[in-house]
User: Fold this.
Amino acid sequence: MAAFKTLDQVDVAGRRVLVRLDLNVPMKDGRVTDATRIERAAPTVRELAGKGAKVIVASHYGRPKGRRDPEMSLSPLVDPLSAAVGRKVAFAADCVGPDAEAVVDGLADGGVALLENLRFHAGEEANDPEFADALAALCDLYVDDAFSASHRAHASIDGVARRRPAYAGRLMQAELEALSRALESPARPVAAVVGGAKVSTKLELLGNLVEKVDILAIGGGMANTFLHAQGVEIGRSLAERDLADTARAILAKAESRGCEILLALDAVVADTLAAGVATAVVGVDAVPADRMILDVGPATVAAMAERLAACRTLVWNGPLGAFETAPFDAGTTALARAAAELTDQGRLLTVAGGGDTVAALAHAGVLERFSYVSTAGGAFLEWLEGKELPGVAVLRA
Ligand code: ADP
Ligand code: MG
Assistant:
């Protein structure tokens, strides 16, 4: 990942700065129920306002598909955003055009305005040049602090960034720095732990990782497909048996690239995926035909943890078992705690992401102990697939 431009490289005093945030906070009955995303975004806005910029905050919310849907208005965010940035935020009832221009014209240096939902205009998702022109007309400079939206070449991510000098905000900067230390220029050896339900959703990710990491540990439902491809009896386990050839191709690619693959040695099996069912730990060569694998076993966790102890960098996506249902959370929790311990000791840089992965790491109580946990979802996964993210490409120095 080439270097990108940050707020350290620009004088923003007196300038109109459009800041793209991801303000998709949970709301109920027109009230914000969890302001975490607003609070995380606040430092960049505070910094810009503190330096005397006129700050214009833009975000999408939900999927209004180009129509003005009052349920998806950003107006309920004005008060929480004002509280988070420590000044009264003005609201523009439209994100472009006369309403937006009037609000921006009224901003003093250090003032902050919030624009209405970008996706009320179809031009946003279409990256329409006229819509991008209209957004660019509001500002002198552009700052992107929405890594989670950077895999989409929308007008507020791509179009406007091509029309104005563009910089990474502090959240974007932190994310890019963490990701770069994890895969672009990692301290080696570097390991990846990949789990989750299906191989089919993570083919590109696995293909990219075997090229970049030294050790790849595979768990979760997707590991069953690999075991099956190697001729192991997996009983009634979740697996994509039709992807056996694909799994073998990934293993062959790993071998040719010198990437060591760690698969399960043992497994926790049960009749059904349900809380409180009888479980047993069996060797992977002894999975009963009428059972399903629902977690990695303790010998597997121990072997993976031992290999991690010799690594300096870890990238993690995907739980190792059906962690939502106890006791099938045990393998993921144990390996996550082992990784957190190594991180605490300063021996391992740990970067993780993925919707269910974040939930599993939170469940294990290690979110704060990992070096960096990305909440970016789809953008994080596309980055793991080795794709160039449009919103990152336009920030390159
Ligand atoms: P992420 O959202 O972090 O990218 P995925 O969506 O790929 O992760 O996978 C998470 C899902 O995989 C979880 O719902 C989990 O229950 C499921 N899973 C993991 N291991 C198994 C297994 N052995 N059998 C069935 N489901 C599993
Ligand atoms: Mg998921």
